[in-house]
Amino acid sequence: MKRAAVLGAGAWGTAFAKVLAEAGSEVTMWARRESVAAEIRDRHVNESALPAVKLPAGIGATSDLAAAVAGADLIAIAVPSQTLRGNLAEWAGHFPADATLVSLMKGIELGTTKRMSQVIVETARVDPDRVVVVSGPNLAPELAAEQPAATVVAGTDVRRCRAVQQAIALPYLRPYTSEDVTGCEMGGAVKNVIALAYGITVAMGMGDNTRASLITRGLAETARLGVALGADPLTFAGLAGLGDLVATCSSPLSRNRTFGEQLGRGKTLEEAQKAARQTAEGVKSCLAIRDLARTAGVEMPITEQVERVCHEGADPRVAVKMLMGREMKPE
Ligand SMILES: NC(=O)C1=CN([C@@H]2O[C@H](COP(=O)(O)OP(=O)(O)OC[C@H]3O[C@@H](n4cnc5c(N)ncnc54)[C@H](O)[C@@H]3O)[C@@H](O)[C@H]2O)C=CC1
Ligand SMILES: O=C(CO)COP(=O)(O)O
Questions:
Q1: Is residue 162 located within the same domain as residue 13?
Q2: Could you say which residues form the signal peptide (predicted)?
Q3: Taking 60 as the threshold, does the pLDDT of residue 1 lie above it?
Q4: Residue from 6, 238, 205 nearest 101 by CA
Q5: Residue 176: left if φ>0, alpha if ψ -120 to 50, beta else—which one?
Q6: Taking each helix axis from N to C terminus, what angle separates 301-311 and 282-296, rounded to the nearest 10 degrees?
């Protein structure tokens, strides 16, 4: 049996801990609040993150980071992208020397424009081979309800990828491996921005033609940026690209889509933030992704408009007009 730690007891950390435990690992979760750790330990639930989900009784939980990671050979991290660097500054010294670090996050760091695996390598001072990314169409409440889904385990060390693949394979979760870390992370981060745009248009009453156009052109700009950063174009046709984009845009469970709906109803950023209980990564990542695109000389018109609506108070109706009024070109 493997010993795994999951750092972050939000929706995804909790669902992922359940997966690891059910696939045979001995799991300890780290929660920021001791009350959440106690609830997981004693009542086997995490009501605020995943209401009504019964967790395996064997999952341990603590708010003591050193205790959570002691002896772990797999450490999965599921905190907000923008706090990861700060979290790791406190944590990294406690990580066992050869543990595989699994990034579950889907965002780009503000300011540095770094992907989460890059932040882990830099801040925890580990060899890039030790970092593995898990990304795909994996809405936490659906996975926790054991609805069948697939995902991608990406890394530069095939042996570690296979070990993580084995550690999360279940009758309801089918993991595939990939060597394209950049592509998987860019797919996961940019789909959150496109899901914001999708939510905005849903709230504006737009129909399936608009939705399909957004998904398709959203994927086009995701792939354009990803390829400029060295990703394999085929990754964007896979689970961590199109798969996650479709799941997130289509699902009322998505925090990013829901956040977009608030903006589409005319709420300000601050009002939408007040209403959101959990992390909607696209809201901050859209700034970093726009900066990445500008530096790489890549056009990302949907991302540009999402940034304007989120952070410059632009009217969504004007944003739609600007997207539709762009210069004509071949597909
Ligand atoms: N929820 C989902 O369905 C999925 C989420 N993800 C990604 O996983 C990451 C985590 O997402 P969730 O668990 O859903 O988010 P969440 O908002 O439910 O949980 C985030 C957790 O991080 C903890 N945390 C630790 N340090 C923190 C700090 N300094 N500031 C704020 N919170 C801190 C919070 O206490 C909270 O438990 C995100 O990057 C998200 O995009 C990926 C796949 C699925
Ligand atoms: O990444 C996800 C599904 O794969 C979850 O999306 P949200 O963060 O928008 O809920």
A1: yes
A2: none
A3: no
A4: 6
A5: beta
A6: 130
